[in-house]
């Protein structure tokens, strides 16, 4: 019998060893620092589609650029330092260039020594992979479509004067790619190739302004032409789209004015010294506004027909002239005896010198007036924007006519394509009320750019959540949404047409539950021939003729299966509008299953055809500009975003090009996600995403973090890249460490945001518990900002959570309503009444709703331990909101700890603070839900005198672990 048992033990032993060998470790926060991944904003596809590049590397540390051939496995890797950079390809795809920054160790050392750091530039030839490196590079550019030249501008030497009036010009190297010959231009301030790449425009800014001016270089002959020389500075070179004209600004010192006086210059009909030049300064000329001048903050440009120049103007302040103060004043001699005062005293007063300006003691104050359209805090926050604001204007060359298009009321002016018309938005009559209640209106004007006449075409047009008019490429039509329907307007006749009246569908966004009037579904713009508007209802996309008479459904009643055309990919950057004679690609999405995919509207066809749709998320779709190569990103909860490539228009036989997150296989990972359907306490059918923990075993229940914000399930198949977020929570790290994560949708009722959260979240938790996956005794909740508010409120209404962590929460809706949103300087009133707050009108007329939805008014009912984050420079949710809740809970002797990172805003920005908060939050949840030892900062707190030692000890321990 013993021998049999021994034999069975021997048979089972390899199985036990194998199971233990397969058990992967959880991802720690130290592992996150070393996590290697592709930076998603660095993808670049060569014009011919044969090469794809990206930057990759650890969360902390130095990165690499990878250049991979799409058709095979050929690839090159190069170190690029601590900062991610994107590869730039020459138009012929034979060359590429990218910057290399300093290494992370050098950056840290430079912070201590204040030593300047410089970028390198690496130039590579393809496919030969020949490398040339340039040092101390400021900017670079290939020569447009010619692909013959690389321009490299170098940084100024360390000895260069830092004075604001010092010369800004540095060396510009012109490197000929085929011959490898170099040509140097000195003291170049700015440069720009035209579209063809055969002409380089540049400006000189030398010491003493010697030789300053505008120059062009013929890149074929090498001939340099000076178009203008002056003791002046030049900037903002701006070529037109065709590359046959450019505009720029010139500035001169002028003793009469405080700031430089600018001139707008237009160069066209380019033919060396015979090129045409137009200069316009404006000051002192007929019809030019007094006390105004050309602005140096805008970028001038030519009209499409090159008949006019467009530019900005702003206030031009004159210097005070002390010698002319008394000119023109009558000289009056006063008899001192007649005034009844001794002559000596009169003389003493007359001889007294006025106090120096620096000696005058002025009050330091702000006057807040109830009639201010913008709060003084908003004016202060936006002061630099206001000072730099430019009013769009034009100058027509033929008749030398100046037109000011924008003014102090009509500030926002948008020039339509073809430069026939412009649209101006004037909200001056409604600005004050809009800043109070968030319901924004504007008067809309049509400006005829030939005559300069302005005509109001809409009065009190509702703009909240709708944007502005969408122009057709011909500049003669525009579309807009009004009162739940879409319309077009012919800008020549001002005739309006209802575009959607024939369609039996709603064009009010059914997912938008803010306090806005009939929020609009998306406007996809116009067809490139300006014949059709492309308008989407909640599911289908429609092609509608400009006059609304002809309507075609481009998707076939997708509402019945909860499927929608989600967005259109812009893969033809040169196109104006959507060219229906070319294949057009769209993201498609099913709100019921959360499946997503890519669909195509084939050239000349009228039906969008899905190419694929599955349990992944798709994006980053591109087409090579000069080749039939398509790429797109694909991801899901378990697989990080990878790039796939296809050479067919139907995206058949895609090939994976990238290998992202190579270390993920070493760690335990989430084993999937379940979509839970449930009904809220308000009777709404909703969904929640339940992400499974690593090493999940069916029948076993797990500690669970409920993460909340608003609607989250549409991102069911999004990958959560391990990192240190500003809010502290990272889904992948938690699932790797054995937590389930629940993310429910929340649907709101007006005037009950907190109660709505309770009505949606609690049933979602119960539905998740019913799956058997969630341990009902070990459920926590976390949210940041609006999610932090709802977390703070939920624990006043339910004891279903064993622990809570709230980041930057609103806690008193009554006091919060009238506080300042310091990041913008505006008041929270508008946010409450038309946006996220969902409480209206003011609390004085709605006291019960404000109090009913305020955590502090239910604070005695809190039984859940709370970890609270609120930073002292929070510019979104005032710091006092966190203090008020913390002190209330503390007074009631309820378990609460508040963490404040000094100097941090609404989200944590500094990496050491982000790392610290992420670690502390998990320590807290591990203690509350996993019975791990309580961290001392929670169980005992940290004395102020011991804080430095506490922080040093944690930093030392972390360094030791790494």
From TrEMBL:
Q: Would the keyword Protein biosynthesis be found if you checked this record's keyword annotation?
A: no
Q: Which GO terms describe its biological process?
A: proteolysis
Domain (Peptidase S9 prolyl oligopeptidase catalytic): give its ranges.
Answer: 762-930
Instruction: Reply yes or no: does the keyword Methyltransferase apply.
Output: no
Segments of skewed composition (Basic and acidic residues): 320-329, 336-355
Q: Which UniProt keywords apply?
A: Aminopeptidase, Hydrolase, Protease, Signal
Q: Which portions of the sequence form the region Disordered? A: 320-355
Signal peptide residues are 1-21
Which GO MF terms are attached to this record? aminopeptidase activity; serine-type endopeptidase activity
Q: Which residues form a coiled coil?
A: none
Query: Which Pfam family would be a valid example here?
Result: Peptidase_S9
Q: Which PANTHER family match?
A: DIPEPTIDYL PEPTIDASE FAMILY MEMBER 6 (PTHR42776:SF27), SERINE PEPTIDASE S9 FAMILY MEMBER (PTHR42776)
| UniProt-recorded name of the protein | Dipeptidyl aminopeptidase/acylaminoacyl peptidase
Which organism does this record belong to? Pedobacter steynii
Q: What is the lineage of its organism?
A: Bacteria, Pseudomonadati, Bacteroidota, Sphingobacteriia, Sphingobacteriales
